[in-house]
């Protein structure tokens, strides 16, 4: 499993995923609808989500290797996202999920974003959301062992 995942997330409280797809002239990899439920007992969602993943050709990739995939979605998509954000009907985020499982592995550390990706994000009016998770044993000490 790669230490990094990147996806584009569009969230709207007024548009269903089908309308978002129509406006973007693009299809999501995953979506949820306003009023849908995660589980039958869950409350209805108050917003829709439209998600597109940047998936590498091989299993593991760093952000700088995934960057061309996002930029490759094209300036037309970035412009359509920017117009959607400008309408006030949605917010857009580029989400980077980083999972560090080996503190000594340099491939699991650092995040570099190039100028092309930053420019694409600017045109898309997308915020950057970085979720970081570090899975690390603390030398066998438990909470009760701390003096």
Automatic annotation (TrEMBL):
Give the Basic and acidic residues compositional bias ranges. 21-30
Q: Give the region (Disordered) as residue ranges.
A: 21-48
UniProt name for this protein = DUF4279 domain-containing protein
Q: Which organism is it from?
A: Streptomyces sp. R35
Q: What is the lineage of its organism?
A: Bacteria, Bacillati, Actinomycetota, Actinomycetes, Kitasatosporales
């Amino acid at each position: 499993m790669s230490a990094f995942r990147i996806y584009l997330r569009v969230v709207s409280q007024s548009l269903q995923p089908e309308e978002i797809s129509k406006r973007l002239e693009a299809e999501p990899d995953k979506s949820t609808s306003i009023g849908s439920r995660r589980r039958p007992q869950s409350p209805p969602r108050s917003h829709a989500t439209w998600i597109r993943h940047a998936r590498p050709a091989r299993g593991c990739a760093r952000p700088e290797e995934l960057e061309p995939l996002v930029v490759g979605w094209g300036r037309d998509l970035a412009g359509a996202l920017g117009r959607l954000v400008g309408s006030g009907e949605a917010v857009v985020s580029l989400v980077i999920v980083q999972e560090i499982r080996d503190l000594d592995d340099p491939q699991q550390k650092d995040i570099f974003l190039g100028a092309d990706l930053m420019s694409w994000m600017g045109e898309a009016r997308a915020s950057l959301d970085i979720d970081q998770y570090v899975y690390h044993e603390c030398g066998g000490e438990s909470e009760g062992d701390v003096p």
